[in-house]
Amino acid sequence: MKLVAVSAGLTQPSSTRLLTDRLVEATVRAVGDEVNVEEVNVGEVNVEEVEVEVVELRDLATDIANNFVTGFAGRALRAAQEAVTSADGLIAVTPIFTASYSGLFKSFFDVLDPESLEAKPTLIAATGGTPRHSLALEHALRPMFAYLHAVVAPTAVYAAAEDWGNDDGLPDRVRRAATELAGLMRHRAPAREERLVPFAEQLAALTREP
C-alpha cells in the first residue's frame, strides 16, 4: 500500500509541510489501527505494507512551468507524476492565496493525466493566515478533485495561524480525516478494466440474427 502526499508550501520550513507531515503520520497510524499493528515508524515511513512519499512542489516549480511551455515533463516532475498515479491514497495540501488554492498547486494537477486520480482515495487540506479562508476547501479544492473523479474523504482539514500550538480542534480534525482516508484506502474499489473488443467479434455481434 502506497501513500503519497503533495505539499505546495513555498517556504522552508512551511506550515503547509508541517500539516502534511501530521496528516501523513495520522494516516499511517490509522492504517495500522485497522490491521492491529502497534509499531509505527514515521520518517522513512513503513508500517506493515505502507510506503510513504512526500512530493514538495516548490522543488518542481520550474519543471511544471517548462511542461506547460514544451509539453514534456522533466525527470523529477515525471517521477512525481508517477508517484501520484501509482498511489493507493493521496494527501493534497496547499496554502490558501486570495481565497483559493495556490497557482503552483493547481498547475501540478493540471499537468497530470486527467484520468490518473479516478477512484483514488484523497484527503484535502490547506493552511492560511485566517480562519475566514477555510471555506476554500469546499468551494475550490473539493470541486476540483470531484472533477478529476477522486474519492475525497468527507473531512477536510484547514489550519489557520492560530491553530498551531492549540490542542482544541486541529488534532481532532487531523485524526478524523486520517481515519477516513485509511478506511478508503483499505476498501478501495478496483480500477475499471476496459476490454478491447476485437473487430471480428464486434462484426459478429452486429450480424448475429436476433
Automatic annotation (TrEMBL):
One GO molecular function term of this record is: FMN reductase (NADPH) activity
Q: Is Oxidoreductase among this UniProt entry's keywords?
A: yes
Superkingdom per UniProt: Bacteria
Against InterPro entries, the record matches this protein to: CE1759_FMN_reduct, Flavoprotein-like_sf, FMN_Rdtase-like_dom, NAD(P)H-dep_FMN_reductase
Task: Identify the SUPFAM superfamilies for this entry.
Answer: Flavoproteins
Q: Where is the NADPH-dependent FMN reductase-like domain?
A: 1-164
User: Does the record bear Flavoprotein in its keywords?
Assistant: yes
Q: What is its EC number?
A: 1.5.1.38
Question: What UniProt keywords are attached to this protein's entry?
Answer: Flavoprotein, FMN, Oxidoreductase
Q: Name one Pfam family in it.
A: FMN_red
Q: Which PANTHER family does the protein's record reference?
A: FMN REDUCTASE (NADPH) (PTHR43408)
What this protein is called in its record is: FMN reductase
Q: Which organism is it from?
A: Nonomuraea endophytica
